[in-house]
Amino acid sequence: MCLSLSPVLAQTASEYIESGKQKMEARVYTAALDDFGKAIKLNNKSEDAYYQRGLTYYAMGLHVDALQDFNTTVQLAPQTAMFYYWRGKTQLELANKSMALWDFNKAISITDNNPDFYVAKAITNLQEARYNQALADCKEALSVRSLYPPTISTIGLIYLKQGKNQEALDYLTRAVNLDPQNASNHINLAHYYFENNEKSKAVEYYTSATNIDRSNSEAYFKRAMLKLSLNSDGEAQRDANRAILHNRRFQKAYVIRGIASYNLKEIERHEYDFQNFLSQAKNAEDYYFIAQQTYLYAKEEQYPVEEKIVPKSEVWANRAAEMKESYEYQLLYAQILYKNKKTTLAAEAANKAQTLAKREDKDDRQIKELIAQIEREKIDQTPPVLRIFAPEANSRGVILVEESDKITVIGQATDESGVVSVLINGNPARLQANGNFDGETVLRSESNQITIRAIDSRGNEAKAHFQVDKAAKKPLANNRKEQKNDTGGNKIALIFATNVYDSWSPLINPINDAKTLGKDLEEIYGYRIDIQINLSKEQILLKIKEYVQLQYGPNDQLLIFFAGHGQFDYGFGEGYVVAKDSDFNDQSRSSYIAHSNLRTYVNNINCKHVLLIMDVCFGGTIDPLIAMRGAETTFEDDREELIRRKMSLKSKIYLTSGGKEYVPDGRPGQHSPFCRRLLEALRSEGGSDRVLTLGEIMQFVGLITPQPLLGQLGQSDPGADFLFIPK
13, 178, 340, 532: most buried, per Cβ within 10 A? Predict the structure, then answer.
């Protein structure tokens, strides 16, 4: 190949490549990438530079980037077999198995004397359950190099999958004896012992693999899975952590660490790990893995219904089964449905799994046992238990609402066999795994009959009826209670709280926090409270728009509070409020409420005194500078002068539970750490002068971790504050 650079520059590019190779061997991957990048900048036709950088990306688990570089090497040197081989290995990591096979076959067509090419092809066919073809590939590899340990070990894995345990053990043991310093051979033999429930032997060989290669992420990961199966959650967590430490992009290790953390009641780490994995999940294998491991090893019996994790695994297993029609995936889905007491749905899934087992010529003993269990169950004839939480009826059993076109119904339906649907006047409600539901129904006349039907998996039905009458809606200004403070203004608190999400993990405390906060603001400070629960993005924005369109007096005060999930996108440099319907995998963030937009909405509210409080992750990014500005904490003026002076200043201020980081939700029923200290501040009533300032609130909340932030939301006058004055 001809180089377009001068000899001096070409030599310089070669030096960078050699330097990068040395750094890669030392596993200083970032520095190696830098060297290969400089070589490419000097010579963008150097296939070796792209090849070495692709190998580095592959070692780091950055398979998409590796694939791009290997594509370039193939274009630059289309007759180099090794480039196709590594592109095929990368395609295999990305679950593009048909493309991986094409690359391996292409490498073999160029050079048929490399056993690694045949072994890679055999592994791909093994993953696709083409066992005879995989064995034929291994035979070809042995014809190139007899007694080649990777080939011997792969044959052992094939026999293991075929249920030929003695043959599998013979070949896997022989591979270890032929090459005892190869960690992969020890890992494969450990896998045999794990599959055959000889777990102490499995631990022994996984440990020997880590002793041979102390940075082998796969060995730590496999041992973590084994420890999880042995109920050694702390050890499983440590091993998974080691796997992640050596390869932060080892996504399956996050699942194992997440389950171990769940079992250890470390909910914050559990949620972080699962969200990390799910944000990267792309194929059926990913969803099957998280569903299977959760189903097998999550200790949900220690948690209340709303915190159990296995109901979520039903969603993941269903997604895997929908993405790939497979007996293995359908079996897991049926097993989880049965565990979640959805017997009818489990029977349907089990029958489909049995059909797939015959089609794929699989051992169907497991699914036959499950079908027999389902059939032995006593037929359930008990209807679900139906409870309605909102709206509440008056003493005559009638619900009176302001003039409106629709009403939201919130409740819970539970049944031992599992509730499959809830209908509100014939329309499906949103139904959560724990039986909680909500839905809207249209009010067509002045007096409306509402019927809620809950149906379980056996077809049993429960009904509830109530009447909703419309009342004429009054303007907000005339409908406010006469709750005048020392300033002569009205106090309003608009509170948003979200516990339940369509695709994000549920939270424990936001709604409880919101209700307690509202109660204190109303009873101590005379606020009119407007609490909005589990709203979609559109519902939140429409509610804020209502307050934008209101007219306010010069001394009116508006407090807006958000509690729930928050997110920050480093690519966009933007923070977000997560609504009930925000899609966890939404890369464009269009289903989220951007902080920049929220600032605009709040600043357009024509109220002179606005305080935005955000108890959400990354809440501090509501301020583009994430800057904290101090507030006065003591005043020499008398109380009346203080109130007069502060209320004369325009104030658009935010208070957030953290900056650019995750914030904890807290333990069930105990409020989030931020909200707990905020409530303590409110209940202090401002001390002796009975005027609670933001500076005084910061004295309460400022000691928690992460550090809450206080700053200007929009245009505020110097020295502005937001005062809380008890009744």
Answer: 13
| Section 51-60 average pLDDT | 93
Report the distance separating Cα 65 and Cα 249, nearest Å.
13
The CATH number of the domain covering residues in 481-712: 3.40.50.1460
Query: How confident is the model at residue 382, as a pLDDT?
Result: 76
Tell me how far apart the alpha carbons of residues 75 and 51 are, in angstroms, rounded to a whole number.
12
Amino acid at 89: K
Q: Which CATH number fits domain 1-95: 1.10.10.10, 1.25.40.10, 1.20.1440.230, 1.20.140.150?
A: 1.25.40.10
Higher pLDDT, 404 or 274: 274
CATH number 2.60.40.10 given to 385-471: yes
The span from the CA of 175 to the CA of 167, in Å, is 13
CA 479, 484, 490, 496 torsion-angle sign: negative
Report the distance separating Cα 458 and Cα 20, nearest Å. 64
DSSP state of 706: S
Residues in contact with 16: Cβ distance below 8 Å, sequence separation at least 6, in sequence order: 35, 36, 38, 39, 42, 49
Torsion angle of alpha carbons 166, 169, 172, 175, nearest 10°? -90
Burial class (CB in 10 A: 0-12, 13-18, 19+), 151: buried
- Between helix 199-212 and helix 217-229 the angle, nearest 10°, is 160
- Say yes or no to pLDDT of 685 above 70: yes
Q: How far apart are CA 444 and CA 406, in angstroms?
A: 8
Residues 6+ apart with CB under 8 A from 358: 364
Beta bridge partners of 610: 558, 652
* Cα separation, 665 vs 203, whole angstroms: 36
Assign residue 87 a region: left if phi > 0, alpha if psi is -120 to 50, beta otherwise? Answer: alpha
Please state the domain extents for the chain. Answer: 1-95, 296-377, 385-471, 481-712
Per DSSP, 111 falls in state -
CA dihedral 38, 44, 50, 53 (to 10 degrees): 10
φ, ψ of residue 495 in degrees (nearest 5) = -120, 125
Residue 56 to residues 35, 212, 616, 719, Cα–Cα distance (Å) = 11, 21, 38, 55
Lowest mean pLDDT among 170-174, 329-333, 435-439, 596-600: 435-439
